[in-house]
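User: Before I run my own analysis I want an independent prediction to cross-check against. Here's the chain; please return only the structure tokens and, at the end, one sentence I can use as a sanity check.
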Amino acid sequence: MGLKQKTSAMLRLVWAAAMVATFFGVMVSASSAQSASPPPPPATTNAPQNAEPAQAQDDQSGGFVFKKEVEEVVLRAVVVDEQNRLVTGLSEKGFHVFEDGKPQDLTFFRKERVPVSLGILIDNSGSMLPKRAKVSEAALQLVDSSQEKDNVFVVNFGDDAFLDQDYTDDVGKLRAALMRTGTHGSTALYDALVASIDHLNSAAPQQKKILLLVTDGQDNASQATYNDVVRKLQSRNGPVLYTIMLQEQARPDTHGQQALRALSEQTGGTAFFPSSLDEVQAIASSIGKDIRSQYVIGYRSSNPQTAGSYHAIQVQAADQEHRLRVSTRAGYYSGELGTKQ
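Assistant: Structure tokens:
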């Protein structure tokens, strides 16, 4: 494969790469936890395509010009009614956005059906080997439903993580990467997430960014921590994360489930916990429909922007007939904006 880079202090993972460009289309499902504080660790453990990026503004005083950056926040939201059915016909007037409890004026709004950049992260540990065929077919089903200019990369991870296919829309290349298996005893899940987020922020061909993580176990080998992943995901324009955690049978909520649920919901994504491999195709289909039903909402924060401070976001939506529920990111860390494009 060529080019294998070891995980560094900057939490980059080992990419074995054949670099390309161009991708795929994917996902969402409605479930969100919008809170007034940064996402805590699990209890058991210690710009859209045509949106303008945040611009520097001039503040003149005494003949000197001081640059200050106004953070433009981009939200991608899915709306469902009480029966969990997608609601796709709302106008801008149907939405109200609050940051740290204060109402915000929208700078743009649209119903989104634009190309996406997606990273597919597949657990390549020994326990996943008998499950890989069905998991890969579900992922390829999403590829087949993609639209023009979508781009996808594939990461297989175990003790280390490997970029087995960089951005492409070539189904043959994606199939080869998804079918590539090996036995790696441990699960460096957080390292894989951190490096994949960095790859999206630095090289994504499209500004709409999605991650899909498929695993059957919790992290047990990463240098990165849960909180490292939270900070990466909660950059201003961080990706939406969807997770599928496979189980042999239904069982009580585990630490691994709690962690994945919290990470996904804080970005406006969803965590799925199927007890049977037969459920994976239906989940993939649901994700594919939902991602194409997103609203894009932008605003420039009216709150003080101290670097590293957390800003909680709440989005409300309503129509004349239904009580509606919105899935979107729960907040962001000021000053951690991700890469502008």
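Sanity check: The chain is about 20% helix and 25% strand.
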